[in-house]
From TrEMBL:
PANTHER family: PROTEIN-L-ISOASPARTATE O-METHYLTRANSFERASE, PROTEIN-L-ISOASPARTATE O-METHYLTRANSFERASE DOMAIN-CONTAINING PROTEIN 2. This is Protein-L-isoaspartate O-methyltransferase domain-containing protein 2 isoform X2. Belongs to the methyltransferase superfamily. L-isoaspartyl/D-aspartyl protein methyltransferase family. Pfam families: PCMT. Gene3D superfamilies: Vaccinia Virus protein VP39. It comes from the Eukaryota.
Amino acid sequence: MGGAVSAGEDNDELIDNLKEAQYIRTERVEQAFRAIDRADYYLEEFKDNAYKDLAWKHGHIHLSAPCIYSEVMEALDLQPGLSFLNLGSGTGYLSSMVGLILGPFGVNHGVELHSEVTEYARRKLDLFIKTSDSFDKFEFCEPSFVTGNCLELSPDCTQYDRVYCGAGVQKEHEDYMKNLLRVGGILVMPLEEKLTKITRTGPSAWETKKILAVSFAPLIQPCHSESGQSRLVQLRKYKG
């Protein structure tokens, strides 16, 4: 997916192109994109491709195309102080941008299947905090990443204001995802080849909007241990 806008010479030019093409439409999202250089989340030998509107994958490390992240950030309608859950949090690039908007009273949790990618995300987060000129200009809600399968969240998991899933969701898991949301919350996920925004308008009421056609790798089904038990993912509790 990607290729919707021209490549930039640097991060700012890429953001200019995304704005011109109406993928980035709000100032809050624009500021977050400008504050975090996409190239910082690439391996060094692949950074030449960082400002192209293309997805990038190396092993288990993956970044969606900038136009997709733009649509996701806009659809989430992020506000300071909200709680956010990123399922398939990957490099932490999206979670860090979200953290710039959530501010010091938000909650920012990520679940990533592959432990080496979780470690990669933590290193990138540490680098951003220690070296970025942008960091001191924002009140940051630091992401917290755990390793596990997002289809195995503990049943006592707190509900969130905003949820994003970065892998293709099968219809059979739609209700599972929707139940991670508080009333009034927004879920954005690839559902049946469409990036989809679902708003929980009541305890059992939902509004669904298809945003655009996408192609995402599907969620990986849980592997049960030899005892037949699943490994539940524990997320840090917070007061809602």
